[in-house]
Amino acid sequence: MSFELQRPLRLGVNIDHVATVRNARGGRHPDPIRAAQLAIEAGADGITAHLREDRRHIVDTDIARLVREIDRPLNLEMAATDEMVAIALHTRPHAVCLVPENRAERTTEGGLDVLGGQLRLRTPVRLLADSGARVSLFVEPDAEQIDAARDLGAAVVELHTGRYCDLVTAGDQAADAELARLRDAAAHADAIGLEVHAGHGIDFATVGRIAAIPEVVELNIGHFLVGEAIFVGLADAIARMRLLMEEARGEEPA
Hints:
It comes from Amorphus orientalis. The protein is built from 11 helices and 8 strands. By secondary structure, the chain is α/β, with parallel strands linked by helices. It has one domain (about 10-250): TIM Barrel (Alpha-Beta Barrel). An 8-stranded parallel β-barrel has the order 1-2-3-4-5-6-7-8, surrounded by 7 helices. β2, α3 and β3 form a beta-alpha-beta unit. α7 (about 160-170) packs antiparallel against α8. The longest helix has 17 residues, at about 175-190. The radius of gyration is 17 Å and the shape is globular. The relative contact order is 0.15.
């Protein structure tokens, strides 16, 4: 699949952990929808929210409000369960990213086993795509998983960058090999007609080399930005992230 040397690179901001802070005490503050609006004002191209089965952070009313109150695309992360598919079909977000989920995990751990779960995933992908949602599958940087995502009819794959980011943080030389896996996976996905996103664990130290992968057109970043906002504010955290993305991509700062 051909592409320009410098494709635009979008930033999706995940506001889950604003809701985590709210839910720790109950009530309405801090409001994740206000955080989404501030993120958009600061330069976010879209908003991501993960509606989990246990509602540990984002809740149903947050999704309904996001659909009504933000003027950028909403990317709904969710497990491929009957309940979540029904919610997505009702709320009609711009995009749906199917992710693995289990009750014990602190955060999403690894990509979907698309290859082994094709029978389970086929109907949710078809229903969501038929509703007009842009369907993404969150996968490891593995050609077989990417091929399976394409065969299911997904429009997008989001590459799991968590292992790379963890290796960089640990100072492990294996980070270079993992980055090579991400590059190869992005090139393969693009070549077979899939749009390529990336996300999980990205921070200021890791964003540059991921953003420099030319086939990647969107980064989804949440926990780090929300954490950094405690110290510098959300707008400043997003502004710095965007600057690092643009520098890595060779773009002129906006």
